[in-house]
Design a protein that fits this description.
Blueprint (H helix, E strand, L loop, with lengths): L1 E4 L8 H12 L21 H13 L11 H11 L1 E7 L5 H10 L7 E4 L12 E4 L2 H9 L3 E5 L12 E4 L5 H11 L2
Parallel strand pairs: 1-2, 1-4, 2-3, 4-5, 5-6
The chain binds magnesium ion.
Length: 184
């Protein structure tokens, strides 16, 4: 079982760093207010600035918190049932920061795959994607891939029976285990 594991919003809570950054220069936004993927539109923030600011936040990778405690243990459990690749969409300048972050948080993985746009992920050869982006999930499902959606405020309105929503990474383990058993 080849598993593609996303970073931003699944392992790394980079939006927390971005909110601290934003809240120093613009009106305050809290994480629970972010109810859409492109929430920045509603706050008159342009897309280029938003993604550029995420890259700036990654430069201070030591300050980016993990999404949950025991993220390393959950990833280890996943690597016991399949091959885990980190598959992340981002500006190329931040790959080294992400790799440092993964090392610091003792995340187990096989390959590190970087793409420029999230929707490119669905073209890659994986059995299952663990991701938080509703746009990526839609494109993966359209290409017949399996998706485990890591629940975040910005994907709560995404509903598709083919995708399984999880609230903790370790909950992906029994889901993938079932998939393996069903395919036997
Ligand atoms: Mg993500």
């Amino acid at each position: 079982m080849k598993i593609a594991l996303d970073v931003d919003g699944v392992l790394a809570d980079v939006i927390e760093s971005w909110l601290s950054y934003n809240n120093k220069i613009r009106p305050t936004i809290s994480k629970s207010q972010i109810s859409e993927w492109d929430f920045w539109k509603n706050h008159d923030i342009n897309k280029f600035d938003f993604y550029n600011e995420l890259s700036i936040c990654w430069k201070s990778w030591e300050d980016i918190p993990p999404t949950e405690n025991n993220i390393a243990s959950a990833t280890k459990q996943l690597s016991n049932i399949g091959t885990i690749d980190i598959v992340t969409a981002r500006d190329e300048s931040t790959h080294s920061d992400v790799k440092n972050w993964l090392k610091l948080h003792k995340i187990n993985f096989n390959n590190y795959i970087g793409v420029l746009e999230g929707v490119e992920k669905s073209k890659l050869d994986y059995d299952i994607f663990i991701d938080d982006s509703p746009l990526n999930a839609k494109s993966m499902l359209e290409k017949g891939k399996s998706v485990i959606l890591y629940s975040q405020p910005w994907n709560l309105s995404f509903e598709d029976k083919r995708a399984t929503r999880i609230h903790e990474l370790k909950n992906a383990v029994p889901i993938i285990d079932n998939m393996i058993n069903e395919s036997k």
